[in-house]
Write a structure and sequence with these properties.
heterodimer, A: alpha/beta, Ubiquitin-like (UB roll), 2 domains, three-stranded mixed beta sheet, elongated, B: alpha+beta, Nucleotidyltransferase, domain 5, Dna Ligase, domain 1, five-stranded mixed beta sheet, 19 strands, about 30% strand
């Protein structure tokens, strides 16, 4: 007898008995095998899908030819296929990018010089770094990292017209684009520096890193006072290590670079509160020098301030000079406090531009 | 190329035990790589009466074999036994269509279809259609009669069928392990092929597999299975008779049967008594040896008489030249061959496992499961002559067992 000889009538064979068993009647082994079979089926289906997808991709590639990408890239003009992403205000400003790159109408991805285009983008001082990538078949992708302005400066061009520039932490001065006017107006002016031309830009301003630290910390910790700062002078920064700040009210504040800015700002804040509370009498703060630093025993030194009398009202005595030290203040004669003659800082600074 | 191999489980769900062998079929040869064995539960007289217990026991044996093999089972060849199985013979004849009387493939197909076309009663399923040799104008043709000359072509089929629900129970026990039954094979055919040779089958031989709950038999003539049958009596009935007759528990009766049971009465001394346990412990009792032998022999004689009666005219000593071959767990009963010889009036002997078989697989109780693996091999190998099948199979297993 051979099994192939069965050839049974289909309706009467044992083969017509359904072999499927209700899962509840299955043994643990059966359920385990069932789960294993299910996993195998899923893996097989996923594998087939992956193989199918790869086959389809290869088919498409072969259909269009292996050189289709480069061929298309050399024939399709870039035109408006520009993509710009930035961490600053220039994000998605395609018009600026198009203007800066100044690509010919028939420029294609294969015809452009990326290094040259990168130089063009970097010629804009606002751009700290730029990455240009070809996205085939016809898109040029530009990714920027922008500088952040910390101050502004008035420059005088060759035709004697003045122009406002922004200064970043690294001392680069540039004319900013797309910035919020409110933000620009809140930036203090720089004084006591000379801008020197270099190519299409300027030589980086020395000491801007220190000044930036001061401005950033002031904005962070004493923003109310920072809002009143009008001019920051760097004229004594290199020689004496001091930064002078002129407020909109005309108060001259001197910061030293030897001591930490945080401590000086704290002392200034305390001082201003003291003056504002009127404990120093009816006098207007004229000058504050925070650059003298600390005593050797780390105790805080008296802050030399200079007050100018306010016109007394009827029946009131005028306060002459007041020395304010630390958290205490007392009214005294002029001989009791140090007086520092205010340096003249103009409200609107002027600058000399040296052309090398 | 391990992935191309098929791992086949041969499962025999018997009344006393469940046996599983796992064979690794490589396309050319079969290697037995795992064996599992578990006491049977929930099965009485070859029928499943408690699905949960039967399923658990079967899965235990399958798991044991699978762990030994270290491979997952791909498909199952299942042995089928039980008193519900019956058989009938049906034959058909056609006149050869061709004008030149040459038998064509169409004639062969027509006569085969006619011979198998007999309807079954409701609720019955065919297990096997065993084809007997063709006859061309009364001339016996053991192989295909195609291109032979003749006017009349005849063929007959021995159809084995059983209750659909009982067969389904066995299939669902395997399905409970989320395994597919590839083939259902009559137990007697599986064991018969293991204990008889092609020459014996050609000369005529009766193979009797006496299990615990059932006795399966197959009568071979002209090299093919002529008649099969199942009697729902087995070794467990001997135990039961002893238990009732001597008022013993089943375990005690089983112990006595194995130690003192005989198929023919040997003891002449009525005073000869044997101990139940023989350890002189409290509760140990003595029983007359002759009584034990009378009980076991009476039941065994009755069993073989039933087999002979069911065979009817199909069995005659003249057409069964190779005698009777006995196997199965209960075939180890002393005196059984003598008993069979007297009843069938032919030579009888115990079926011997092939010499190349490993010692731990030579037990008569394994012959059915090993026979299932034989059928799995023949099914894969396609049609082949009986002699070449045997040679190929023996060769395959010889290589297997010679390696370890």
């Amino acid at each position: 007898m051979n099994l192939d000889d069965h050839n049974l009538p289909p309706e009467s064979s044992w083969r017509n008995i359904p072999q499927a068993v209700n899962p509840r009647a299955m043994s643990k082994q059966g359920k385990r095998r069932r789960m294993g079979n299910g996993i195998r089926i899923i893996v097989a289906v996923v594998s087939l899908a992956i193989v199918g997808w790869i086959t389809w991709k290869v088919g498409v590639l072969l259909q269009h030819g292996p050189r289709s990408s480069t061929t298309a890239a050399s024939s399709i003009p870039i035109g408006n296929h520009l993509k710009l992403s930035s961490d600053g205000v220039l994000d998605n400003d395609i018009k600026w990018l198009s203007r800066t790159l100044d690509l010919p109408d028939d420029a294609t991805l294969m015809s452009i010089d990326l290094k040259q285009l990168q130089d063009r983008v970097l010629s804009e001082g606002q751009v700290a770094s730029a990455t240009l990538v070809r996205l085939f078949p016809a898109t040029l992708s530009v990714t920027l990292s922008e500088r952040t302005p910390v101050a502004r400066i008035m420059a005088e061009s060759a035709d004697l017209s003045s122009k406002t520039l922004l200064v970043a932490r690294d001392g680069i001065a540039y004319s900013g684009l797309d910035y919020d006017p409110g933000l620009l107006n809140s930036l203090p002016w720089l004084d006591g520096v000379a801008l020197v031309h270099q190519g299409s830009g300027f030589v980086p301003i020395k000491g801007m890193a220190i000044v930036s630290d001061l401005l950033i910390q002031a904005k962070l910790w004493v923003n109310t006072l920072y809002q009143t700062w009008s001019v920051v002078s760097l004229s004594k920064l290199q020689s004496d290590g001091i930064i002078k700040v002129k407020t909109k009210e005309g108060v001259l504040i001197t910061f030293g670079t030897q001591d930490g800015f945080f401590r000086q700002l704290a002392r200034l804040d305390t001082l201003m509160d003291t003056v504002k509370s009127g404990t120093a009498g009816r006098a207007k703060l004229h000058e504050v020098d925070l650059s003298l630093g600390q005593r050797p025993n780390s105790l805080q030194a008296d802050v030399p301030v200079s007050l100018i009398p306010i016109e007394p009202k009827d029946g009131e005595k005028s306060a002459t000079k007041t020395t304010v030290s630390g958290n205490s203040s007392k009214s005294s004669s002029a001989s009791q406090g140090k007086s520092i003659a205010p340096r003249a800082l103009t409200a609107k600074p002027t600058f000399n531009i040296h052309v090398p | 190329m391990k992935s191309k191999h098929t791992f086949i489980a041969a499962v025999e769900i018997g009344t006393s035990k469940i046996t599983v062998f796992i064979g690794e079929y490589s396309g050319r040869e079969l290697a037995i790589i795992g064996r599992g064995e578990c006491p049977s539960h929930g099965i009485i007289k070859g029928s499943i009466v408690d699905f949960k217990k039967a399923s658990d026991a079967t899965q235990t044996a399958l798991l044991q074999a699978q762990n030994e093999a270290g491979e997952d089972i791909d498909c199952v060849f299942l042995a089928q036994s039980g008193g519900h199985l019956e058989g009938f013979y049906n034959e058909a004849a056609v006149n050869v269509k061709s004008a030149d009387n040459m038998i064509s493939q169409s004639d062969i197909k027509t006569v085969c279809d006619l011979a198998k076309a007999k309807m079954l009663p409701e609720g019955r399923s065919v297990v096997h259609n065993i084809q007997r040799p063709f006859r061309v104008d009364g001339r016996l043709v053991p192989t295909s009669p195609e291109h032979l000359m003749g006017q009349r072509l005849e063929v007959g089929y021995w159809t084995v069928h059983g209750q659909k629900q009982r067969i389904a129970d066995f299939i669902h026990v395997i399905g409970g392990g989320n395994l597919q039954v590839r083939e259902v094979i009559l137990s007697s055919l599986a064991s018969g092929h293991m204990i008889t040779t092609a020459e014996e089958r050609q000369n005529g031989v009766l193979a009797i597999d006496i299990g615990a709950g059932t006795t399966d038999y197959v009568l071979y003539k002209d090299g093919v299975a002529h008649t099969t049958g199942v009697v729902a009596i087995g070794g467990a009935h001997l135990t039961n008779d002893l238990s009732i007759g001597l008022r013993l528990t089943t375990d005690q009766a089983e112990k006595l049967k194995l130690r003192f049971g005989r198929a023919v009465i040997q003891s002449k001394d009525k005073a000869d008594r044997v101990w139940l346990d023989g350890n002189f412990a409290i509760g140990d009792r003595q029983f007359p040896r002759q009584t034990i032998e009378q009980i076991t022999s009476a039941r065994m004689w009755e069993l073989l008489e039933v087999v002979k009666k069911k065979l009817g005219h199909a069995f005659t000593p003249e057409t069964c030249a190779s005698g009777v071959v006995l196997t199965g767990g209960s075939a180890k009963l002393p005196g059984l061959t003598e008993c069979a010889s007297k009843i069938f009036a032919v030579n009888a002997h115990l079926g011997e496992a092939p010499s190349w078989l490993a010692d731990n697989l030579r037990d008569p109780g394994y012959q059915t499961a090993l026979g299932l693996l034989y059928y799995s091999l023949s099914g894969k190998a396609g049609k082949a002559s009986a002699s070449s099948e045997t040679r190929g199979f023996l060769g395959t297993l010889s290589r297997l067992f010679s390696n370890g």
